[in-house]
Amino acid sequence: MFNGILIEKDERGYRAGRQALDEAHLPAGNVLVDVDYSTLNYKDGLAITGKGPVVRSFPMVPGIDLAGVVASSQSSAFKPGDSVLLNGWGVGEKHWGGLAQKARLNGDWLIPLPAGLTARQSMAIGTAGYTAMLAVIALEKNGVTPDQGKVLVTGANGGVGSFAIAFLARSGFQVEASTGRPQEAEHLRRLGAVSVIERSLLSAPGRPLAKEQWAGAIDCVGSHTLANVCAGLQYQGTVAACGLAQGMDLPASVAPFILRGITLAGVDSVMRPLSDRLEAWRRITALVDDELLAGISREIGLGEVIATAASLMEGNVRGRIIVDVNR
To answer: Which domain does 240 fall in, by range?
Structure first.
């Protein structure tokens, strides 16, 4: 038996709670992992609270991230004792995830724990930092360079936004941060933002074309915010879209695309091939340090997950939540 968060849906309704689980009930997979740490992401919050249609089958253990040690393996890529890391692949949605002390997984979903990182550090980064780095790489591949001007980050106080600011700043970019929590402006500046703007400047319906303000952007918000970001990009600018905190819609105009030649680059972190994952984590490892991770994350135990998920959905959580699944 082991402890985990279990989401159930039946005639009694939708509910999530900490339970003792039987290893025999773990789903199919060729690698069994003893989990050390997981995380609490926005998607996990949606799943646990039931505020979004994230979970595809029930019962479900949420947790789209995990780091731990291989207990047993039928995969040629891993052996018992190997330290491993997982992000995405539908884990926590279609396949039992990381918010438990054990996980049985497909070995193709795992990567070795990056050299120089502990399991806890990797979960301080988690899918949020991994996604932020994929977005930075997308900007670079589309020709955005530090000498072209500011790069905007929306949803700046969230996990992806926080890491995006830090990674961009540490890569030489000037970063402008957009947030609905102006009281956190000093925190954003410590991460590397040179300026901070109110999200209300972007979140309402705007003009098809606006003043050219940013060489690039990383958008974690979607909806009117993303439309306004597109309208405010410089000629041949790029926005990497990786979130939908405001909404899934995109009430935009084609004007920025055909008059300024901008690029809208979609960033998926769930199904990325191994080569992309390894490159992103290599870049991350070169940029992070204990000071950054300490300022961007905090740790909770498994028993605190349900309450923290509710707080996350209310917009009251800053940065990253690491979950020690063994306490």
So the answer is: 127-266
User: 214 with 233: CB under 8 angstroms?
Assistant: yes
Task: Tell me how many domains the chain contains.
Answer: 2
In this structure, the answer to whether residues 18 and 69 fall within a common structural domain is yes
**CA 257 to chain centroid:** 27
Contact predicate 5/61, CB 8 Å: yes
Does residue 102 surpass a pLDDT of 90?
A: yes
Residue 226: helix, strand or coil by DSSP? helix
Please indicate, yes or no, if residue 108 is contained in any of the structural domains: yes
Q: What are phi and psi of 64, to 5 degrees?
A: -85, -5
Structure-block tokens of residue 26: 């773990």
Are 47 and 93 in the same domain?
yes
Check which CATH number belongs to the domain holding 23 and give it: 3.90.180.10
pLDDT at 205 (0 to 100)? 97
Q: How far apart (Å, rounded) are the C-alpha atoms in residues 86 and 305?
A: 19
**Cα–Cα distance list, 53 to 46, 127, 312 (Å):** 8, 19, 17
Q: What are phi and psi of 194, to 5 degrees?
A: -90, -15
Structure tokens at 246: 């405001």
Question: Binning pLDDT at 50, 70 and 90, where does residue 159 land?
Answer: confident
Asked if residue 88 is part of any domain, the answer here is yes
Tell me: do 136 and 262 sit in the same domain: yes
Cα torsion 171, 296, 186, 195: sign: positive
pTM above 0.90, yes or no: yes
Co-location of 135 and 247 in the same domain: yes
Q: Which amino acid is at 122?
A: S
Residue with tokens 């949605």: 93
Residue 276: inside a domain: no
d(CA 215, CA 312): 31
Do 152 and 222 lie in one domain? The reply is: yes
Q: Please state the rounded mean pLDDT for residues 116-126.
A: 96
Q: For strands 31-39 and 13-21, give the pairing.
A: unpaired
